[in-house]
Amino acid sequence: MKQVDAFNEIGLSSDSKHPLARVCKARHCCTGAVFALKLSFDSDPLIVEVEAEVLHRAAGAPHVVDFDALLRGPGGKGAFVLEYMDAGSLGDLLRRRGGLGIPEAAVAEVAAHCVVGLAQLHSCGVARLDVKPDNLLANTRGEIKISDFNLSRILYGGSGERLQVPITDGTRMYLSPERFAPNARAGT
Hints:
Layout: E1 7-12, E2 21-28, E3 34-40, H1 45-57, E4 67-72, E5 78-83, E6 88-89, H2 90-96, H3 104-123, E7 126-128, E8 136-138, E9 144-146, E10 152-154, E11 165-166, E12 185-186
Antiparallel strand pairs: 1-2, 2-3, 3-5, 4-5, 6-8, 7-10, 8-9, 11-12
């Protein structure tokens, strides 16, 4: 089994200012493979377990970032080994463009990838609660993938039962109007 110390940090991710984790570009010492290594700051193991379960359920979905492993990082906190998306986030791109936006055809392409990715997540029983430009990653092959699942919720239990989960978390600027309702829930 891979250990966090089996990776050498080779740079910070463009999303290195993540409030709930530290994300870095890392190379596996033995294989030389490059990954994104997300070191969680969250001391609640349940949060880390839910994120790992979401990533496990989404395995193989072409518009969701690939999940390689969950390791124990410094202080026993979770460390996610993820696909490295070498072109950064859509949020990075928008900030670099200084408010100029992006061409309509590119927006349509990104939206199409997102809709398919969200449908893939929903088919796995996952509600993605924080869809925003900083959580949409790109690579130089032109792929757009959804990432950062710490604010996702599982809608179906292990026996297939439908769960009701609170959906009020997320980045306020990107919340849909119904999420502002008191006691908003998914799975009903």
